[in-house]
Every structure is written in C-alpha cells, then in structure tokens.
Amino acid sequence: MIKSHESIRNLLQLAPGTAVTARGWVKTRRDSKGVHFIQINDGSCLKDLQVVMEADRAPADLIAKVTTGACIRVEGEMVESPGKGQAVELRGHSLELLGAAPPESYPLQKKKHTLETLREFGHFRARSNTFGAVFRVRNALAFAVHKFFQERGFLYVHTPILTTSDAEGAGAMFQVTTLDLSNPPRLPTTGAIDYSQDFFGKPAYLTVSGQLEAEIFALAFSNVYTFGPTFRAENSNTPRHLAEFWMIEPEMAFCDLTGNMELAEEFLKYLITYVMDHCAADLEFFQQRYEPDLLATLEHVASSDFVRLPYTEAVKILSQASRQWEFPVAWGNDLQSEHERYLTEETFRKPVIVTDYPKQIKAFYMRLNEDGKTVRAMDVLAPGIGEIIGGSQREEREEVLVARIRELGLKEEDYWWYLDLRRYGGVEHSGFGLGFERMMMYVTGMKNIRDVIPFPRTPGHADF
C-alpha cells in the first residue's frame, strides 16, 4: 500500500535532499547521454514524477523493460529540477520492475487516443490523463455530496436495489428472476408466468429510484438522503443516457416547495465550489483539453442567484421568442433541452428553477396546486446542460393522492404502504433527485456520460 505521504502528489511537494521511495506506472521513458528520464504516475495527481537514473544505476536489460505501462519502484533522493514544469525530480539510486508491459501488446502506447478508443480498453483507460482527472473529480464530488448533507444533519439511507415497486413508471425496468427462463412455471388458466413461484413471490426489478422508500424515512427522521445506483432498461444510445447510474435523492419533512428550491440551489453551489477548491489542476486540464469556458461557467453558476420561474411564464417567454423550435411550445407540453437552454443561456443567462408544471406531465405523488391543473414540481435548469435537478413537494393529503392514483390508472393496492404514510402522522414534505453522472459531466465539461462513470452500462455493453 502507498501511504499518503508516499504518494506522488506529496513527493512533488518535498524539499530537495529528502530520501524517498516512489511507485507508479510508467508514462514515458527517454534516454539521453547515459541518463534515463522516466515519467511515472500513481494516480494521486495529474502531474507525473520525473525519475532521473544514471545508466550505471540499472542494468540495460532492466531498463529495456521500463516501457509505457510498466509498474516500477524507485528509491532515491528528491532534487531540484533544472527542467521546466516541475520544481523537483527524483534522482534514482535503485529501480525495481514490479510488472512489465510489453510494448508490442500493451494498447495504450504514448500517442493521442480518442475517447472512443479508450472506451474499448476500459480496463486501462483510468491510467490516461483524462480519466485520471475524471475519477479524481468523481471521488471529490462524491465526498462533497456526503459532506453537504452530513453537515446539515441529514441521515444517509440505503434504499433497496431490488424492488417490487415501479416507482411511478420513472422508466423501463430490468426484471430480476430466479425462474428457469427456458421453461418458466405458468398459470393453468391463462398461461401467464406464475410469479408466485419466483424468489419474492411476485415480479421484481432493479430500482429506478429510491425516492418512495426515502419518504418512509423522511417521515421518521425528518431529513434524509440516498446516494446509490439506479437502473433504466431503455434502449438509448445517446451521450446522455446510461442503463446504470447513480442518483442523489434527499427527502425533507416539514418542507414545502420553497424550502426544496432553496436546498437544491445551495446544494449545487456547494458541490461546484467544493470541486473548484479541491480539484483545481484537474479542472484546468479539462478547460484546456475539452471545454474552454468551463471555469467561467462554474464560477458563474456558483455565484448566481437562481431565477424562480413558473412554467406558465416560461411557456409565454418561449412562445414569444423569435425562433423556430424543433419541439413545439404550448401549455401542457414538457420543456425540451432546447427550451431549457434558451431560458438559461439567452433569456436569463443564469440558472433557472421552473415550477408549477401541468399535472398531466408530472408524477402522481406531486402535490396538486389549488388551481387543480398544476403541481408543485420544480426543475433546476443550468446553462450549458439544461435540466440537472428534478423534484417536487409531495402530496401529503390522502384523499387527493388516492384520486391522482385512480386518475392515472395505477393500482391503489400497490401503494398501500405509501398511502399509510399519509394516514398516520403525514405532513408536508419535499425532495429532489440529482443524477450524479449528469453533475459529473457539468463540472468536468465531458460531453459523453460514458466517460464520467468507471464502468458504463449501455445497450450491448456490460463488460467487467
């Protein structure tokens, strides 16, 4: 194990004259006038450590195996570097080859690889500069999520991954079964599959959301949040969709839509600020390589007061815009990405929270407004991406909730426990969901969601 003080990130901060041991994977090696210059990285930071080995310090046959991708251990002394780009370098006294990487077969030789190519070698792509930066940011962002909620007294809840609830039809679901699919038991009357003989005695699925279960805990612990994997069995081959992704879903009792919006805005600003403070070098790399306006965009969002905009007013603004829309604008239609970006990038030039959507385009559990036509929903829209958070005040009135379930043709008996939460000690409560990978795309400027998750799951792809 590399201890914290032995990481390359910390070695690069040491004063000349310090004896150290460095371990890592070789990025490059060049030889000049009897000296070997070896760049190594252990993943702890973007910068490599340059190792300088005199030719007489290591046998030629050993040096020949120190190629791109090889893993080595070097003992030596940190010295002042005469080269550009680094204050110190490691003067190696001894070198050990821990793992060879034959150049004739190792796929990530020193040359520029496209992101598409790197996806083909998902087991090695974390060694590249781009994905090293991506996953350091992902680590920091995940820590910031927990830090934000823990500092505010929220309880972290692990909601189920296996479920028999469809979470109000949030998306196509992966079914899970122990039945023999080549010869499943069938009901004698209809010939349908007899799920009473399955593991759970009924159809079961991978979850699409932890929200409904989080509401159970919010109505006992007041403020809770979930942060876990969710699944969509949708045949979507786009840069914005995954079959498996991570969701952050807080739920708060004694909280109306206003409080929900305030927390969502505070949360987004906190995450952006935390990553900017703790991953500056990685964000600068993304700005140079992928998104020229990244830091300015993030700083702008973190310092802006988010606009509150009722859906009806949003439709009016879009209807009066002097442009042709690919998707028609009309009251009752959902807003599309082109509409969301127009509002954030051209109309207000800052994040916008759209509220009070028509009930027919939102879920049954959202609190019905007094007009009987809209619900207390909210979508947080950010410049450059559109919707990044979706949430609502939940319907706490049992009779209204039952009416909505019936209106949408859902089975009331499937939600008996959900209705019980309203019958016994129910209170107003609210929550929202943030897709972690969408947030990752936003803070890194990466354009494909497959490049911000360690092991992307998409149609036809489930390696590792």
Could you please describe the fold and organization of this structure?
The protein has 464 residues and is an alpha+beta fold. The chain has 13 helices and 16 strands. The protein has an eight-stranded mixed β-sheet. The chain has a five-stranded mixed β-barrel with strand order 1-2-3-5-4. The protein has a three-stranded antiparallel β-sheet with strand order 7-9-8, with no helix packed on it. β1 and β2 form a beta hairpin. The chain starts with 7 loop residues before the first helix and ends in a 20-residue tail after the last helix.
Task: Count the DSSP helices.
Answer: 13
Going by helix content, strand content and strand pairing, the class is alpha+beta
Q: Roughly what is the average pLDDT, rounded to an integer?
A: 95
The 3D shape can be described as globular
Alpha-carbon distance between the two ends: 24 Å
Q: Helix fraction?
A: 25-40%
How many β-strand stretches?
16
Strand line-up in the sheet with most strands: 6-10-11-16-15-14-13-12
Fraction in beta strands: 15-25%
Order of helices and strands: HEEEHEEHHEEEEHEEHHHEHHEEEHHEH
Oligomer: single chain
Radius of gyration: 27 Å
pLDDT below 50 for ≥5 consecutive residues: which ranges?
A: none
List the helices and strands and how they pair.
Blueprint lengths: L7 H4 L7 E14 L2 E7 L7 E6 L5 H4 L7 E10 L7 E12 L15 H6 L8 H23 L3 E2 L5 E2 L11 E2 L27 E3 L4 H11 L1 E9 L12 E10 L3 H22 L1 H10 L4 H10 L3 E4 H9 L17 H11 L4 E7 L15 E9 L3 E9 L3 H10 L8 H8 L5 E7 H9 L20
Parallel strand pairs: 3-5, 6-10, 12-13
Antiparallel strand pairs: 1-2, 1-4, 2-3, 4-5, 7-9, 8-9, 10-11, 11-16, 13-14, 14-15, 15-16
Helix pairs in contact: 4-6, 4-7, 4-13, 6-8
